Amino acid sequence: MNRIGIYFIAALFALVIVLFTCTFNVRFNENAILTTFGHAGDNAEITEPGLHLKWPYPIQSVRKYDNRMRVLQTRIENVVTKDNQLVAVQVFLTWKISDVLVYFRKSENDARAQTYLSDRLRSNIGVSMISTSVNC
């Protein structure tokens, strides 16, 4: 192989690496936050699916969040009713991220948010068996 072919393959390889580090894809069921040096500005939320441009990793990074409904389910717990009956209860709630930017700023990751919601849900199990929603 001559030198021109080697240079062409090396340049093509370098171009592919640069394009890979400077683009990201957002799926139709995702929202993304584009952070610059770890901070998200007011227009950092990306909701349109498709291919988007960014600066390479040390400058900008992307965090993607699923925008579909999620289900959080508690384990079976025994609850005493007002008439002193013991009832086994398993509760679930569905939730989704409505504002990705606020979610990014308030929670570090999905595990922390699910722990918070699970604690709130478990604390409200015995309060009212009639209530169907938990305001978080």
Helical segment tally? 3
Series of secondary-structure elements, N-terminal to C-terminal: HEEEEEEEEEHH
Whole-number total of structural domains: 2
Summarize model confidence as the mean pLDDT: 84
Structural class call reads alpha+beta
Terminal CA distance: 66 Å
Biggest sheet statistics: 3 strands, antiparallel
Helix content: 25-40%
How many strands? Answer: 9
What is the overall shape? elongated
Radius of gyration: 23 Å
Poorly predicted segments: 129-136
Strand residues, percent: 25-35%
| Order of neighbouring strands in the sheet with most strands | 3-2-5
Task: Looking at this protein, list some descriptive labels.
two-stranded antiparallel ribbon; 2 domains; 136 residues; disordered C terminus; three-stranded antiparallel sheet; single chain; alpha+beta; 3 helices
Explain how this protein is built:
The protein is 29% helix and 29% strand. With 136 residues, the protein is α+β, with helices and mostly antiparallel strands. The chain folds into two domains: 1-66, no CATH class; 69-136, no CATH class. A three-stranded antiparallel sheet has the order 3-2-5, covered by helices on one side. A two-stranded antiparallel sheet has the order 1-4. It has a two-stranded antiparallel sheet with strand order 6-9. The protein starts with a helix and ends in a 13-residue tail after the last helix. The model is unreliable at 129-136 (pLDDT under 50).
Task: Draw up the topology in text.
Layout: H1 3-21, E1 23-26, E2 30-36, E3 45-46, E4 50-53, E5 60-66, E6 70-73, E7 77-80, E8 86-89, E9 92-95, H2 100-106, H3 110-123
Antiparallel strand pairs: 1-4, 2-3, 2-5, 6-9, 7-8
